[in-house]
Specification:
Helix content: 25-40%
Number of helices: 8
Number of strands: 10
Oligomer: single chain
Largest sheet: 6 strands, antiparallel
Strand content: 25-35%
């Protein structure tokens, strides 16, 4: 404990430090933590509003589920697709972010202008080809570009994926997206100006074929047009009711006229033959029942209209 006793010089130095504020009495001195710095380019600020990003995220989550179901059904394997992130980059940054070989499908974004792309890991594409041609569907150790035949197989799989994307986007707009071509060198692919702002929707795949990445890249201008169109096409409550009624009016229902009912034993039913008479419970002058989807809705009488059997409604239930 002798080492804990301060000398006179040390006491005076401590008191001087307290007076100048270099030492705080009664407070714990904490070490400064390095602040996390987030890079932000003021020359290219985020153009996509947060509200629309939340809407886009909800749709993208539905797209992920639909992709997983479509790939699993098409390839006959268990595949799960999850949404990782939605990011906003210039096209130049998006292209230069890839270091490995990627399989890139160029999408036409009709009826809107511009082009988008759907990129996949080449290794995962080779696993899909292997699975589609009857193999186990494993990612090879040596990654190589796709051949023309392999591109055709991958294109068939991606067509089903694009169809699922279009269905999920029906809430926003009716799309006619199509795959124009497949490229393996994404860095030489020029579908937009280098400064064009793009939305990158990143998905992760897992399951029987291993893990992979699927990225859907769309210009922000195209997404803005889609969102604006969805707002302008929004109908009022009365118009919405009219649309629902119009759809319901065209629904086909099974309609049945019941002439009568009776109870038969199994022996009587088995021994029925041509010419036998089955006695019904109702009388000849009783009204017949009109059933719609097996529920009685009205009563009426049978008749003839020209040469066709008919039913005249007498009363409603």
């Amino acid at each position: 404990m002798a080492n804990a006793i301060l000398k006179n010089e040390e006491v005076e130095a401590l008191l001087a430090a307290i007076e100048t504020g270099q030492v705080l009495v009664g407070q714990k001195v904490e070490t400064k933590k390095d602040k996390k710095i987030q890079h932000y380019d003021f020359r290219r600020p985020d153009r996509f509003p947060r509200e629309q990003k939340r809407r886009l995220q909800k749709i993208s989550e539905e797209v992920a589920k639909a992709m997983g179901i479509s790939l699993s059904r098409y390839l006959g394997a268990s595949i799960v697709v999850e949404l990782i992130a939605i990011e906003e980059f210039s096209y130049e940054v998006f292209v230069t972010s890839f270091t490995d070989i990627m399989c890139t499908s160029v999408l036409s974004l009709k009826p809107f202008n511009g082009l988008g792309c759907l990129t996949l890991d080449v290794g995962y594409c080779l696993a899909m080809v292997d699975r589609g041609l009857g193999g186990p569907g494993r990612i090879p150790q040596k990654i190589r570009p796709l051949t023309m035949i392999e591109e055709a197989v991958v294109n068939a799989v991606l067509l089903s994926v694009v169809e699922e994307v279009k269905i999920c986007w029906l809430k926003i707009a009716h799309l006619d997206w199509k795959i124009e071509k497949i490229e393996s060198d994404i860095k030489s692919l020029q579908i937009a100006p280098s400064t064009e702002v793009m939305i990158s929707i990143n998905f992760a795949t897992s399951g029987d074929l291993g893990s992979g990445t699927i990225i859907l890249c769309i210009p922000v201008t195209t997404l803005e047009m889609m969102m604006i169109k969805s707002k302008t096409e929004k109908v009022g409550r009365q118009e919405e009711i009219a649309l629902v009624k119009n759809v319901l009016n065209n629904v086909e229902l099974t309609t049945t006229v019941v002439l009568g009912t009776t109870n038969l034993s199994l022996n009587e039913l088995i021994n029925l033959k041509e010419g036998d008479v089955v006695r019904l419970d109702n009388k000849v002058n009783d009204l017949l029942k009109l059933e719609i989807e097996e529920k009685v809705k009205s009563y009426g009488k049978p008749g003839m209209v020209r040469k066709n059997l008919a039913f005249q409604v007498s009363s409603m239930i």
